[in-house]
UniProtKB/TrEMBL annotation:
Database matches in InterPro entries: Aminotransferase_I/II_large, Kynurenine-oxoglutarate_AT, PyrdxlP-dep_Trfase, PyrdxlP-dep_Trfase_major, PyrdxlP-dep_Trfase_small
Listed name of the protein: Pyridoxal phosphate-dependent aminotransferase
Organism of origin: Brooklawnia propionicigenes
Cofactor dependency: pyridoxal 5'-phosphate
Family recorded in the similarity comment: Belongs to the class-I pyridoxal-phosphate-dependent aminotransferase family.
């Protein structure tokens, strides 16, 4: 039923990863790393399995992981969250987003996101019967026009979903924009859902500022993150929500009928990860920044117009600069033409806005440096 317009059929990530596998192409489409994360985290998962942590976890998540999430919020952002009532472990950020939207959105409520948006937002807003309204992020810097934003958020707005650092644009919102979001949410009595899965992936010395740190924001902010990006464990699907106790209770009510619980032995392992030293956290961004440079240099040499990201692990390019006006068509042909896979930005926008993003293509740079060099040299042959 939901797939009749083709929007909620196979995700672009599945489609492009299948294409990469079939053709043996380099997969810069789906965003997952091709190297393992910290050894201590991997060892902790093995130890947890050996210690018999293999049955259902408590509904809110293993207490030690919730404690570690609370410590992480305090250590990096000075935020206080009670692990007993204000923190919930989920099956990745994906379930956190789904359970939050399903818990808070009634049919007909408006949900505002920036556009392009992570595809799961549109899908779950649709499942909840909400109306999805967007504020454009435009090249070259992909920052919102705050006046336009003012006209989109109204008393009908139930949620404003923020994704900072942003997928797919790589934008990192400045304090001024985040403060504006908080002010608008207050004015219209809306909740803010902030997807911060790329919180540790910011470049050039920039700092990520969580929405919940703004005065008066905590009471209406649902902060979502995930271990997948920070610890290179996208397959473990450990995510979390930090929110006021009554909101957590509402989200938990939905979550228990989605997955109930997940990933018991991975939960203590992620607690170990969250407690790793500052060197580890500094190394995530510096390693990725090198990868970003390799891919960007290659894409520029290949003739693309490149929009350098401030955060996350994707780079957008304009394919018109190399003679392809339609990036969706190019994405389907690229694996055959040069053996590289990317994802068209059209997958992250509403059908009526595709024209504005038609020539944008996304490449992921969370791959080994030799893989990125090889991809860059193949793209030069386009
Ligand atoms: N939000 C954004 C912005 C993402 O890019 C992703 C993909 N990792 C997710 C959520 C999903 O995260 P998870 O794998 O933890 O479900
Ligand atoms: N978040 C990753 C991306 O944007 C993977 C998403 C997915 O496979 N659903 O590529």
């Amino acid at each position: 039923l939901l797939g009749t317009d083709g929007r909620l059929s196979t995700t672009i990530f599945t489609e492009m990863t299948m294409l990469a596998r079939q053709l043996g192409a380099i997969n810069l489409g789906q965003g997952f790393p091709d190297e393992d994360g910290p050894q201590q985290v991997l060892d902790a998962a093995k130890a947890a399995i050996d210690a018999g942590i293999n049955q259902y976890s408590p509904g809110r998540g293993e207490p030690d992981l919730r404690a570690a999430i609370g410590e992480h919020q305090q250590r990096f952002y000075g935020l206080e969250a009670d692990p007993g009532t204000e923190i919930l472990v989920t099956a990745g950020a994906t379930e956190a987003i789904a359970a939050t939207v399903l818990a808070l959105v009634e049919p007909g409520d408006e949900v505002v996101t920036f556009e392009p948006f992570y595809d799961a937002y549109a899908a779950v807003i649709g499942l909840a019967g909400g109306r999805h309204v967007t504020v454009a992020l435009r090249a070259p810097d992909f920052q919102p026009d705050l006046d336009e934003f003012d006209t989109v958020v109204t008393d009908k707005t139930r949620l404003i979903i923020v994704n900072d650092p942003n997928n797919p644009t790589g934008a990192v919102f400045p304090a001024e924009t985040l403060q504006h979001i908080v002010d608008l949410a207050h004015r219209h009595n809306a909740f803010i859902v902030t997807d911060e899965v790329y919180e540790h992936l910011v470049f050039d010395g920039a700092r990520h500022i969580p929405v919940a740190t703004f005065p008066g924001a905590t009471e209406r902010t649902i902060t979502i993150s995930s271990a997948g990006k920070t610890f290179s464990t996208t397959g473990w699907k450990i995510g979390w929500v930090v929110a006021p106790a009554d909101v957590i209770t509402a989200i938990l009510t939905v979550k228990q009928y989605l997955t109930f619980v997940n990933g018991a032995p991975f939960q203590p392992a992620i607690a170990t990860g969250l407690r790793l030293g500052d060197d580890f956290y500094a190394s995530i961004a510096s390693n990725l920044q090198r990868k970003r440079t390799i891919l960007i240099d290659g894409l520029q040499q290949a003739g693309f117009q490149v929009f350098s990201p401030a955060g996350a692990y994707y780079v957008l390019v304009d394919t018109a600069a190399v003679g392809f006006e339609d990036a969706t068509q190019l994405a389907r042909r690229l694996p055959e033409l040069v053996g590289v896979v990317g994802v068209p930005v059209s997958a992250f926008v509403q059908p009526e806005h595709v024209a504005q993003y038609r020539s944008l293509l996304r490449f992921a740079f969370c791959k080994r440096e030799d893989v990125l060099r090889e991809a860059a040299s193949r793209l030069a042959g386009l």
